[in-house]
Model the fold of this input.
Amino acid sequence: MGMARSNPRGRGERRRTPAPNPTGQVKHKLRFAIGSDFATSCRIQKQIMDEVIRQGFTGPSIFAVRLALEEALANAIKHGNRLDRGKKVRVEAEVTPRQIRIVIEDEGGGFERSSVPDPTTRANLEKTGGRGILLIETYMDKVRWSRGGRRLEMIRRNADGPPLRG
Amino acid sequence: MADMTSPVSVTSQQDIRIVEFTNNKILDEANIAEIGQTLMALVEENNPPRLLLDFANVDHLSSAALGMLINLNNKIKQKDGQLRLTNIKQQIYEVFVITKLDRLFRIKPDRAEALSSFEH
Done:
């Protein structure tokens, strides 16, 4: 994407202006390329959540998106890029009143979803980590890993959003 | 970060330390690390530690926060102490159920019940 350099917002953050989509709804697309640090992650989460709220998402949907977004970014920064500030996390969020689609891609070594142990078994219950993926998969409607586990695409519908058309 | 207020407030009832979270979100790593340090210090200071965590103000929490709570629980168990959680809102309680941590922690519906559940 190569967007980080000449960026007036600094720190690789960039925001695109909205364009109307064919259904007449305004689709807001936010794009960021951030370094692997939690403070920047916090800031872009706030921008995405502000848009989610502006688009009319309600209680349970807001809760779900906020949780999944935090978990996915923490995973990309910690487990993907292993806190290497030289590595980027690219984030794309497409928000309409009906749903949000988020794509997060890190520059780490990837992982195999099937190799992540079930954190709810008796043997793993007292482990301090390993619950992020379970929460993402529980709270989002659609979750897909690709590019060897480096890219995550997730979708959550707004429970009280407008009905599907066409 | 720039926030100078403590993320928890601590009061006491006899030898039980009651911890209230002041922020409505226990989400980001820096915030969680700070809370973890404060709680660990309380565990160190009290023998045996008896802690009651009141989640009345909390609307969001992440798996990193759960990890911090598990760490705390392990430390308290090591010191033969007791930990209770209370006033957890429904949405947050669901996170405990999904992760099955409702089986690990002693969660009580309100403060009075939580306080009376401490064993002497």
About this structure: The first strand of chain A starts at residue 13 and ends at 15.
